[in-house]
Amino acid sequence: MTTLVSQGAEGRLFETTFLGRPCLMKERFKKSYRHPVLDEKLTNKRLNQECRMLSKCRSLGIRTPTVYYVNNKTNTIYMEYMKQTVVLKDFIDDHVAKGERTVLSDLCFNVGYTMALLHNGDIVHGDLTSSNVLVMKRIDKYDCVLIDFGLSTNSSLVEDKGVDLYVLEKAFLSTHPNSQDLFDKILAGYCSAARSQKVVMSKLSEIRMRGRKRSMVG
C-alpha cells in the first residue's frame, strides 16, 4: 500500500514498503516545459546527487535517512522512514507555545553544530529550513536529522556556505517570529565546530548587507 505523505514543487513523498520494510518513497516530477531528453538527464543527475550527499553525510557523522534503493527510470528514491521523529518547525511551534525555550536553545545549538559538520565536509544543503530538519528524541537529549538534499551541492566556496546560512536565517526568522535568540544559538553551534567559521561569518554579514541593499532598491 502506498500513501501520499506530502507534495512540493519538486516532487511527492509517499509512505510505502521496500522488501517488507516500512519506508518513504520520494518521486521527482517530470518538467513538461523542458525538452524530454534534457529533463531526464537533469532529473537523474539531481536524483543521484541527492543520494550521494545523503551517503556522504552519514560518513561525516551527520544523521540522515538511509537510502535503500534508487530507481532512475521512475525517478524515485526509497529511504528510511523515521517515524519516531518530529519536524523541527512543529517542534519549535509546540515548545514556544508552552514556553519551553531551554530545550529549544539546546536543540538549535545542535542544528548549528550539525550544519558546521556539513560545511566542514564541503556540502552545501541549498534549502535548509526548519521544515527540512527532523528532531529525534534520545535518552537525555534531542538529536537533529537533516533531510531533503535535492538542491545540495559539493562546494568549498565560502560564498556558498555563507549563502546557505543566509537562506536558513531568512527562512527561520520568517517562519518563527520573535526567535532571533534561537537563531543566535544556531550560529553559536555553527561557530563551535566550523573550521572556517570566521571567514564564513564575515561572508554572512556581507551577504546580509547585499540583501538589505536589494530590499531598499526594490
Please tell me about this protein's structure.
- This protein has 218 residues and is of the alpha+beta class.
- It has helices at residues 36-59, 88-98, 101-120, 158-175, 180-193, 197-217; strands at residues 3-7, 11-18, 21-28, 67-71, 76-80, 85-87, 123-124, 133-137, 142-146, 153-154.
- Strands 1-2-3-5-4 form a five-stranded antiparallel β-sheet, with helices on one face.
- Helix 3 (101-120) packs parallel to helix 5 and helix 4 (158-175) packs across helix 6 (197-217).
- The protein is globular, with a radius of gyration of 18 Å.
- The mean pLDDT is 92.
Brief characterization of the structure:
The protein is an alpha+beta fold.
What attributes characterize this protein structure?
5-stranded antiparallel beta sheet, 10 strands, 218 residues, alpha+beta
The amount of helix comes to 40-55%
Give the C-alpha Rg: 18 Å
Strand content: 15-25%
Number of helices: 6
SSE class: alpha+beta
